[in-house]
Design goal:
mainly alpha; flat; 4 helices
């Protein structure tokens, strides 16, 4: 059985789907709150992305990572060395969650645009 190859000029095959877009009707104060929260989320996301990129670079530069890359794929030591490199530089989903957690808490409740009382 041969695989079907799609040419680059052909439009992508679309599956049947239904999307219903309903405009959000908000008041001015609600809009300000939403925009402030979305902006805060964007800043937290970008901070986490930047931190992840820094940690990924450090992992790739580590000696354990370099040694692991030199080993054949079948070698069980390879997996341990990669894990060691990630652990040394706290490069995991949980570590990034821990990094992000304090970013949104101290200032967001006191932000004037969110409408939230200070804690």
């Amino acid at each position: 059985m041969s695989a079907r190859v799609q040419s680059a000029d052909a439009p992508p095959h679309r599956t049947p789907s239904f999307v219903c877009e309903v405009p959000l009707r908000v008041t001015r104060p609600q809009e300000r709150i939403l925009l402030a929260r979305l902006e805060a989320a964007r800043q937290v996301y970008n901070a986490c992305l930047g931190q992840a990129r820094i940690r990924a670079r450090l992992v790739r530069e580590s000696k354990a990572f370099q040694r692991a890359r030199a080993l054949p794929r079948e070698d069980p030591q390879r997996k341990r060395l990669f894990a060691q490199a990630r652990g040394q530089h706290a490069f995991s989903a949980y570590a990034l969650h821990a990094y992000a957690q304090p970013l949104g808490r101290p200032w967001l409740p006191d932000h004037p645009e969110t409408g939230q009382p200070g804690v």
